[in-house]
């Protein structure tokens, strides 16, 4: 008997229990911090100063809600050879001291940042931050070492420079740490994708003429939050004439019979994200739409078939069509239509795969990488298009696909329409209610059957 390897007792269960090991969050915290420290040790930096909430969460395992995502209000310092120090809103810092025992309480401190320039130089806040970081580095004997910063506004950068610090890029240290996912991270990424599986089942049920794109977006948000999502970054809903060119945003458009429609769901569960496209047809399909879907699927499957340790990203990009074949003047103009990107606590991580850069700058795939592969094909009817995306985990022998809603074939949703003539009973059965003929007509109206998820 064979059994699929798993690291948790009941995958996709959302509660902790006493009778089996599920997600081991203590192990997750230790592994992430160990990877960050190892990446810093292998760099030329003395410390990394973090404002990116994804990096702060990865290193400190703290989180105060998505409202803080674009504020640059929290900041954390990871010095070489030491634990991270986090400056946060005072009440949040106190909460961490009480309920985040994986770091020393004194490493959680109250602090105010320039907040993308909202606190300008005149307030004294930027220079206070600069002095605070310089003092910490001197205390750790790192004042003369380069300080990596993952992202910051110019007000903050200039304040750090006035404090006498040598500022350089620190984002690559953290991206390198996040490149290979731990066992616990992969389990969370799988579970995050599972929530979207359920949302696509609901979307399929909703699709019919008379539904608005924004209604689908609203229901997707509702269902994700009901199932435990902590952040819905985006739900793209694109239908009908809006499919080509891809606008990357939903609208208030009303769905109509025969529309092709594609969706992208980007959300975060326990800090781990999805990027997950599916395409459907509403109430019917034409040959151009079906051909576009088949081609889109073929491009995607060709890329997935190559995923294994040691494969390089240029080989994946090579199986996708050139800009000229797609009718674009150059690769940058069609960037993102055939695309791959690492996924984890951030939406874009290593490896990144495209014909813009991968052909000349390939990187090898490694076991434990998790990334999304997405393809797009415009239909010859001039209005429709197909967009499909799968998330893959690189395994020792190939890859596992963790996005499981069926997408091998184009699914047609919406009402089933039956001709009146089909309700007339066959002359042979002598019935007047048309039941037998109706059953046959309904069966014949199915353009495609949902495909299995085995790859």
Short description:
With 455 residues, the chain is of the alpha+beta class.
Key traits:
alpha+beta; 455 residues; five-stranded mixed sheet; disordered C terminus; single chain; six-stranded mixed sheet; 32% helix
Write the layout of secondary structure elements.
Blueprint (H helix, E strand, L loop, with lengths): L24 H17 L5 E4 L2 H8 L14 E5 L5 E4 L1 H10 L8 E3 L14 H15 L7 E3 L4 H9 L4 E3 L1 H9 L3 H24 L6 H15 L3 E9 L20 E10 L2 E2 L2 E7 L4 H18 L8 H6 L4 H4 L12 E4 L6 E5 L16 E9 L6 E10 L4 E3 L9 E3 L21 H10 L11
Parallel strand pairs: 1-5, 3-4, 5-6, 10-16
Antiparallel strand pairs: 1-2, 2-3, 7-8, 8-9, 8-10, 11-12, 11-13, 13-14, 14-15
Number of helices: 12
Give the helix level as a range of percent: 25-40%
Question: Structural class given helices, strands, pairing?
Answer: alpha+beta
Give the averaged pLDDT, no decimals: 92
According to DSSP, the number of beta strands is: 16
Low-confidence runs? 446-455
User: Quaternary status of these chains?
Assistant: single chain
* Rg (C-alpha, Å): 26 Å
Overall 3D shape:
elongated
Q: What is the N-to-C order of secondary-structure elements (H for helix, E for strand)?
A: HEHEEHEHEHEHHHEEEEHHHEEEEEEH
Largest sheet: 6 strands, mixed
Beta-strand percent range: 15-25%
Which strand order spans the largest sheet, edge to edge or round the barrel? Answer: 4-3-2-1-5-6
**What distance separates the N and C termini?**
20 Å
């Amino acid at each position: 008997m064979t059994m699929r390897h798993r690291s948790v007792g009941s995958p996709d269960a959302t509660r902790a229990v006493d009778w089996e090991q599920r997600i081991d969050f203590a192990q997750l915290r230790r592994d992430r911090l160990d990877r960050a420290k190892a990446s810093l040790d292998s760099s030329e930096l003395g410390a990394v100063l973090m404002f990116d909430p994804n990096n702060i969460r990865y290193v400190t395992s703290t989180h105060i809600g998505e409202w803080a995502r674009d504020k640059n209000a929290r900041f954390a310092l990871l010095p070489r050879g030491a634990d991270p120090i986090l400056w946060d809103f005072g009440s949040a810092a106190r909460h961490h001291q009480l309920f985040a025992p994986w770091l020393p309480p004194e490493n959680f401190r109250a602090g105010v940042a320039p907040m993308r320039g909202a606190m300008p130089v005149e307030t004294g806040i930027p220079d206070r931050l600069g002095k605070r970081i310089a003092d910490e580095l001197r205390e750790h004997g790192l004042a003369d070492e380069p300080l990596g910063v993952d992202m910051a506004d110019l007000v903050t950068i200039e304040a750090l420079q006035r404090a006498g610090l040598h500022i350089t890029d620190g984002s690559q240290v953290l991206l390198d740490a996040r490149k290979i996912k731990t066992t616990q991270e992969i389990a969370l990424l799988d579970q995050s994708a599972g929530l979207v599986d359920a949302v696509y089942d609901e979307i399929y049920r909703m699709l019919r003429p008379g539904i608005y794109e924004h209604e689908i977006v609203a229901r997707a948000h509702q269902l994700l939050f009901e199932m435990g999502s902590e952040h819905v970054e985006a739900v793209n809903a694109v239908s009908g004439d809006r499919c080509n060119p891809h606008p990357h945003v939903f609208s208030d458009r009303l769905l109509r019979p025969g529309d092709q429609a594609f969706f992208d769901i980007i959300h975060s569960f326990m800090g781990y994200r999805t990027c997950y496209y599916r395409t459907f047809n509403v109430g019917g399909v034409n040959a151009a739409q079906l051909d576009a879907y088949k081609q889109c699927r073929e491009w995607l499957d060709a890329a997935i078939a190559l995923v294994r340790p040691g494969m390089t990203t240029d080989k994946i990009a090579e199986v996708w069509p050139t800009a000229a074949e797609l009718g674009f003047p150059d690769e940058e103009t069609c960037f993102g239509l055939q695309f791959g990107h690492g996924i984890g606590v951030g939406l874009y991580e290593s490896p990144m795969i495209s014909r813009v850069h991968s052909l000349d700058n390939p990187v090898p795939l490694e076991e434990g990488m998790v990334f999304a592969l997405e393809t797009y094909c415009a239909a010859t009817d001039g209005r429709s298009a197909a967009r499909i995306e799968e998330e893959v985990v690189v395994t020792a022998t190939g890859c596992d696909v963790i996005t499981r809603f069926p997408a091998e074939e184009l699914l047609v949703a919406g009402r089933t329409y039956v001709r009146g003539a089909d309700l007339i009973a066959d002359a042979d059965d002598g019935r007047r209610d048309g039941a037998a003929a109706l059953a046959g007509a309904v069966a014949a109206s199915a353009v495609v059957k949902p495909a299995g998820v085995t790859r």
